[in-house]
Amino acid sequence: MTTGQTSDPLPPQRPAIRGVLLRRPSARGRWAPAARAGLSLALPATILALCGFGTGSLLAAMGAFAVLYGERRAYLVRWRVILTAGVLLTAMAALFGALGSLAGPDASTVVDLGVVGALAVCAGISVFAGNALRLGPPGPFFFVLVAGVSQLVTRHGVDVGHLVMFSAAGALASLVVGMAPVLSHPRGPETAATTAALEAAESYLASNSGADPAARHGVALSTLNAWTVLHDAAATDSELAQRLWAAHQKVHDAQVSSFVAPLPRPSVARRLAFAARLDSHAAVSAFRAAVAAALAGSIAVLSGLGRPDWAILGAVLVLQLGPDRVHGSIRGAQRVLGTVAGVALYAILHVLDLHVGPLIVVLAILNVLIELTVATNYAVAVLFITPLALLMGGPSTPLPVQIGERIGETVLGVAVAIAAVWLLLPRIHRRTLHSADSAVLHAGTRVLTDGATSPVDADGMRQNRRDLQWQLVEAELAATDSACDEPAWAREQWPEHTRIAAVGYDVLGACWRTPLGQPIGDGVRAELSSRITH
């Protein structure tokens, strides 16, 4: 299916700030994951409290965050994802807990700046990995949160061994709770992902959106996710896969009777290799996050604020997904508004002076509310993240001091983060888009070159086709960011970007229309090759 183009394609407009800032939170489809988030914290914390660990049992929350990373994953791989996240979170607790224990409560300014540097490195690595692997929500923030809280609580008396035990208990509970639904809905994740992809394909076909690259991109993204989940579930020969195959055929106007499922997403190593460029979205996001974390934390230390890690968290929470300027600024405003409200909620809980049992219930409820709101309204989610993070541990300072310092540190972190989005590498989005579009052309050329002699369903060709799809998604993300960062420049580049996207998808369409066991036809290859080199 050859995609037609308008004479003057235009990029999407910048979003309305009011609409994004005041978006109503929606809990649709989030209740089950939210309940799991709450249980993953409540169960281990309750057991630890009964064993006599007091308020230290609340630190089980650090490992309990692991359950969030397994959501929407097929159960056949979910346990590995949760286990991996739990091990990494516990390792982060051990590493930064040991660092905090060495620093002690009365560390010098030089030592404090060294801790800030370590947290900045943690932020940079976490942000790069999260964006390169396209992990999506909940993002790398919780790894930085665990690092910050761990170094803080061990400075003030929490034993490192106990800290690791608390985190491991939360991770173990996450594994049990995250896998529990397999007993009642063993095919739930792949059914949900396939249904979403089928609905996107039906909407695309019904609206006759062949000339709209954004619509085609949305279908491609949901379809790629569905195939990935089906692969993860070892269900590529299932009835769900057959339905997805039929929809995929319709989107590409193909009529191939034999069924060969597309490959899943690239391996971790391959995704990291794709992002290993200085101008990639992941690299730029990581650089900005690391610099902002180091600067915000250093200013907090030199200003005598009580928790420089809080300023770092403020910056990372804004920058973790590599937002464009508009969304980054909105996210910063949401962070400040949510923190002010969250500190007020924390003050109420502080005055109530709850015992361990009620505190566990409160933290579990906060975890539920975070999961319900984080995907649709960030400010509301931060309202619940703030007291959760503050209740997990920290020095006993007077409440008014805590309130003033936490708000001040948040404003500092957000201000530095927004400055980083606008001022640090201010034109890098140009290089990122050009690089992403060039990667699409290179991947398309590789498909056509190998497709001259290799059947379209050969293992190497299937990998090439999968990589082209991955690069198309990356290019669309880069283009959307450019449209928000610099609308005038994006308008000039949009015809060329849409041309590249169109030929990339048409190369994939040609592969789908070619009978299995055969290479791409000479005439089709020649026409597509000429469009690539245009």
UniProtKB/TrEMBL annotation:
<dbReference type="GO" id="GO:0016020">
    <property type="term" value="C:membrane"/>
</dbReference>
<feature type="transmembrane region" description="Helical">
    <location>
        <begin position="286"/>
        <end position="305"/>
    </location>
</feature>
<feature type="transmembrane region" description="Helical">
    <location>
        <begin position="47"/>
        <end position="69"/>
    </location>
</feature>
<dbReference type="Pfam" id="PF13515">
    <property type="entry name" value="FUSC_2"/>
</dbReference>
<feature type="transmembrane region" description="Helical">
    <location>
        <begin position="81"/>
        <end position="103"/>
    </location>
</feature>
<feature type="transmembrane region" description="Helical">
    <location>
        <begin position="164"/>
        <end position="183"/>
    </location>
</feature>
<feature type="transmembrane region" description="Helical">
    <location>
        <begin position="407"/>
        <end position="425"/>
    </location>
</feature>
<feature type="transmembrane region" description="Helical">
    <location>
        <begin position="141"/>
        <end position="158"/>
    </location>
</feature>
<feature type="transmembrane region" description="Helical">
    <location>
        <begin position="378"/>
        <end position="395"/>
    </location>
</feature>
<keyword id="KW-0812">Transmembrane</keyword>
<protein>
    <recommendedName>
        <fullName>Integral membrane bound transporter domain-containing protein</fullName>
    </recommendedName>
</protein>
<feature type="transmembrane region" description="Helical">
    <location>
        <begin position="109"/>
        <end position="129"/>
    </location>
</feature>
<keyword id="KW-1133">Transmembrane helix</keyword>
<dbReference type="InterPro" id="IPR049453">
    <property type="entry name" value="Memb_transporter_dom"/>
</dbReference>
<keyword id="KW-0472">Membrane</keyword>
<feature type="transmembrane region" description="Helical">
    <location>
        <begin position="343"/>
        <end position="366"/>
    </location>
</feature>
<feature type="domain" description="Integral membrane bound transporter">
    <location>
        <begin position="295"/>
        <end position="419"/>
    </location>
</feature>
